[in-house]
Specification:
Helices cover 39% and strands 15% of the residues. By secondary structure, it is an alpha/beta fold. The strands form five sheets. The protein has a five-stranded mixed β-sheet. Strands 10-13-16-5-17 form a five-stranded parallel β-sheet. Strands 1-3-2 form a three-stranded antiparallel β-sheet. A hairpin with a 5-residue loop joins strand 14 and strand 15.
């Protein structure tokens, strides 16, 4: 990995004040940590909170001792970080009260102001993808030059992109490749706090740590950045690849706001907040349970102002940065989804067309080579004549892969090497295509 691409790391706090959090807030978090895990060494508490022991966690523990909430169980070690701390009865009572307010236990949060500043510092603005980089990212697909000439400017504009066209022609794959091609890495916090409310941002399902600088992920998906010798950083942050978060028919307006869990009593950040610094793909637009116009209207302010307005459970509104490349993908006609006025707000509307017959042949040849299936031009022409020209069926980019997968399944069933022949093509096509193209999705 090019170390020059790693953004400047957030410096570690040198005092309780520099954490941006109050002493009592950190004390409450330490109490809940000991309540759930039992007696702990000082450095173990610091590891859970992701804060330095010296001048931060030791100050927190001294405060808890003065308040007679914890005691030192053993102190034979010279360093205070090796003292073993345990809750007193008053500490147990206080911890139970705290859990009634919020069950969050884990890394200490960063403030929303600090998070906002970090997102802006590592913004996508000015991050350009060259023609060479884009072609490399999309090399697995067979696409025409015109499409590249449309995609490149659209990506670099930073504006929303609308990909439309028939299903099976690679819209989702194109969007995923764009996300993978974004340069650089970003720092992301585990959690953010607003008025002592917890918003969980890091999501092991969507955020990928940097392989060259991380240990194998723990079961909890914790970020484990390995700094170079002598480097120190705020452990409440971890280094990840620019995220690509894709959602489909399951998306609702509720998913686009802070999600409050009434059991744990803390919030899960919405998809677009988790996608900050990367790509947010809304796939299968028009298949959601809400009207496309309603869904798209939700994006008008964020797309124009680069700020998203979110609601806390008590009704308070907060502003979070919206540094996201939004890609909408649909196999429906854009004009059937929303009116012209809204489409004007989406600067780039790009059609992903059916492959030409030359492109179809190249895809077929690539897939045959990938699966070590001897390619036959005669058999391909038979396929095109019988199952495309005759029934007036249009080719799709995904057809070669699916048909050759079916041919492999047939060969495995028969216990023979896969091969292209009129007989095998007939068998595969009869179970893949419907009789009438109009009936196909």
């Amino acid at each position: 990995m090019d170390t020059m691409s790693i953004p400047h790391s957030p410096p570690p706090p040198r005092s309780v004040e520099e954490t941006g959090l109050s002493l009592t807030f950190l004390a409450d978090l330490a109490l809940k940590t000991m309540y759930t895990r039992g007696s702990l060494l000082g450095h173990e508490i610091a590891d859970v909170l992701k804060l330095p022991f010296a001048n931060v966690v030791d100050e927190v523990l001294d405060y808890l001792r003065r308040e007679r909430l914890v005691e030192v169980k053993s102190s034979a070690a010279v360093s205070k970080s090796a003292y073993r701390y345990a809750l007193l009865q008053k500490g147990h009572t206080r911890a139970r009260e705290l859990f009634n307010r919020s069950q969050y236990v884990g890394p200490a949060p960063v403030t929303l102001d600090v998070y906002t500043a970090r997102v802006q510092a590592q913004s996508l603005a000015g991050q350009l993808i060259t023609d060479e980089v884009l072609r490399h990212a999309l090399a697995p697909l067979v696409l025409g030059d015109m499409l590249f000439d449309q995609l490149g400017p659209a990506i670099n504009s930073g504006k929303a992109v609308f990909l439309f066209g028939h299903t099976g022609n690679g819209k989702t794959t194109i969007a995923e490749a764009i996300g993978a091609a974004l340069p650089g890495e970003i720092w992301i916090p585990y959690v953010v706090t607003v008025d002592e409310q917890i918003l969980r941002v890091f999501d092991a399902r969507h955020h990928r740590t940097i392989a060259e600088t991380t240990e194998p992920e723990t079961r909890s998906g914790a970020l484990r950045y390995l700094p170079s010798k002598g480097e120190h950083f705020d452990q409440r942050w971890g280094l990840i690849r620019r995220p690509l978060i894709a959602v489909g028919g399951e998306l609702t307006l509720k998913n686009l706001n802070l999600i409050f869990d009434p059991t744990t009593k803390f919030y899960e950040a919405p998809y677009q907040m988790k996608a900050n610094g990367g790509v947010f793909l809304v796939d299968d637009l028009g298949r959601q349970r809400i009207r496309p116009r309603t869904l798209l209207n939700r994006w008008i302010v964020p797309l124009e102002k680069r700020v998203d307005h979110l609601n806390l459970a008590a009704g308070q509104k907060i502003d979070v940065p919206f540094d996201v490349r939004v890609i909408f993908a649909t196999n429906l006609k854009p004009e059937d989804l929303v009116d012209e006025a809204f489409l004007r707000r989406i600067r780039y509307k790009i059609s992903v067309p059916d492959p030409t017959w030359d492109e179809f042949r190249e895809i077929f040849q690539r897939e045959a080579t990938k699966h070590s299936i001897p390619y036959s031009e005669d058999c391909l022409q038979y396929l095109i004549a019988e199952y495309y020209h005759m029934p007036q069926r249009q080719p799709r980019g995904v057809h070669p892969r699916d048909l050759l997968d079916g041919l492999l399944d047939l060969a495995r069933f028969r216990g023979i090497a896969p091969k292209m022949s009129k007989e095998t093509i007939d068998l595969v096509c009869r179970s893949y295509f419907l009789k009438k193209p109009d009936d196909e999705m």
